[in-house]
Amino acid sequence: MAEMTVDLVAVERKIWSGQASFVSAQTTEGQIGIMAGHEPLLGQLVEGGTVTIVPTEGERIVAAVHGGFFSVTADTVRVLAESADLAGEVDVDAARKVLSDTNASEEQLRAAQGQVRAVEATVTD
């Protein structure tokens, strides 16, 4: 199976880097799936969205991403998020608490929604 180099980077740290066969991201234009050999493109990530990476070795990676961009060439995908949390790092109880907080800001709500979606994506698949 064809593979590509994938980097998932947030402003504060590199989240993941390696070889993958598939990347899926929520963009302002809708959900998009990328495989090796894809046409070059630049996309804007949605606030509170998710990115899924299927590595060539190891378990699938799901991250909640909060804004940013991704860049695609025939053999690379670079996800540059304002912030990102791997699903395994999310405190889902805290995220759900934010979702039920009537005083939470729009930004806090979107981030919490993305975190819950990321965790749920790892459970349902």
Automatic annotation (TrEMBL):
Family: Belongs to the ATPase epsilon chain family.
Keyword terms of this UniProt record: ATP synthesis, Cell membrane, CF(1), Hydrogen ion transport, Ion transport, Membrane, Transport
The organism's place on the tree of life at top rank: Bacteria
Main location: membrane
HAMAP family: ATP_synth_epsil_bac
Compartment(s): Cell membrane
Name of this chain's protein: ATP synthase epsilon chain
InterPro entries cross-referenced by the UniProt entry: ATP_synth_F1_dsu/esu, ATP_synth_F1_dsu/esu_N, ATPsynth_dsu/esu_N
Membrane topology annotation: Peripheral membrane protein
Pfam families documented for this protein: ATP-synt_DE_N
Keyword Iron-sulfur appears in the UniProt entry: no
Subunit architecture: F-type ATPases have 2 components, CF(1) - the catalytic core - and CF(0) - the membrane proton channel. CF(1) has five subunits: alpha(3), beta(3), gamma(1), delta(1), epsilon(1). CF(0) has three main subunits: a, b and c.
Domain ATP synthase F1 complex delta/epsilon subunit N-terminal: 4-84
Annotated CDD domains: F1-ATPase_delta
PANTHER family xref list: ATP SYNTHASE DELTA/EPSILON CHAIN, ATP SYNTHASE EPSILON CHAIN, CHLOROPLASTIC
Protein's job: Produces ATP from ADP in the presence of a proton gradient across the membrane.
